């Protein structure tokens, strides 16, 4: 199972890398066309904005690990492990409930955008913004799995201090 998850992680990272590389190449083409050829290309800005949107939510859903996210954990680190576990359970529940409550209205709004198209390339905007629904679903699933782990009586809160980069 770990091998499958590792491969899925690598594929997700690869997709993000391809999107970032495409952004870089399109950006370079845009600069070249505008300042060397004196012929700006209008579609490049639209693709760059769409790719940026997709990279952010794709990476947030599939590439970032829990420890990679910004945390304000001063209070969390100052309490004993059993209280930390309660904090983890409550935060996972909060994220699941909050994102879960927003999922259907968000998906409804995204699907509403099927009637609109992007200005230059005429892409349906429900396709463009569908990545946010994928992001919501992935986060709900990830925190659901984390909640199951936190509720296990044998779960021990892990210390990330060893994994931090020393300066």
UniProtKB/TrEMBL annotation:
Keywords attached to this entry: Cell inner membrane, Cell membrane, Membrane, Transmembrane, Transmembrane helix, Transport
Q: Where does the record place the Tripartite ATP-independent periplasmic transporters DctQ component domain?
A: 23-149
Where located? Cell inner membrane
Q: Name the Gene Ontology biological process terms.
A: C4-dicarboxylate transport
Topology relative to the lipid bilayer, per the entry, is: Multi-pass membrane protein
Enumerate the transmembrane spans: 12-37, 43-64, 85-107, 127-148
Pfam families with a match to the protein in the record: DctQ (PF04290)
State the source organism's domain of life.
Answer: Bacteria
GO molecular function per UniProt: transmembrane transporter activity
- One GO term describing the cellular component: plasma membrane
Q: Name the principal localization, coarsely classed.
A: membrane
Family according to the record: Belongs to the TRAP transporter small permease family.
PANTHER family for the chain: 2,3-DIKETO-L-GULONATE TRAP TRANSPORTER SMALL PERMEASE PROTEIN YIAM (PTHR35011), TRAP TRANSPORTER SMALL PERMEASE PROTEIN (PTHR35011:SF10)
Q: Subunit structure, briefly?
A: The complex comprises the extracytoplasmic solute receptor protein and the two transmembrane proteins.
Q: What does this protein do?
A: Part of the tripartite ATP-independent periplasmic (TRAP) transport system.
User: What's the name of the protein?
Assistant: TRAP transporter small permease protein
Question: Could you tell me which species this protein originates from?
Answer: Enterovibrio coralii
